[in-house]
Design brief:
alpha+beta, binds zinc ion, globular, two-stranded antiparallel sheet, 2 helices, two-stranded antiparallel ribbon
């Protein structure tokens, strides 16, 4: 059983998923995390190897680059923190 129970929130009138599973590009560790609904997370420390993850070029936050679910503004169809 590896089921993810989604947590939802409302961003600019749209329902968005708030939980994302980040996969560390360095060690492969997967961490379930809850995203802030109105802020981008630019730095994220891997819970296993302590690598500091940063978004890939063109991405606004680490969830867009390494998470299973993009950040709330992207889900709502808006760009964020440009
Ligand atoms: Zn790691």
């Amino acid at each position: 059983m590896n089921e993810i129970h989604n947590t939802y929130g409302i961003y600019q009138g749209k329902t968005v998923i708030l939980n994302s599973r980040i996969t560390c590009p360095r060690c492969g560790y997967q961490q379930d995390d809850l995203m802030p609904i109105d802020a981008c997370v630019y730095f994220y420390e891997c819970h296993q190897c302590q690598a500091i993850l940063k978004p890939l070029p063109g991405h606004c936050c680490v969830y867009c680059s390494y998470g299973t679910v993009a950040c709330p503004p992207i889900q709502a169809g808006t760009s964020c923190c440009s």
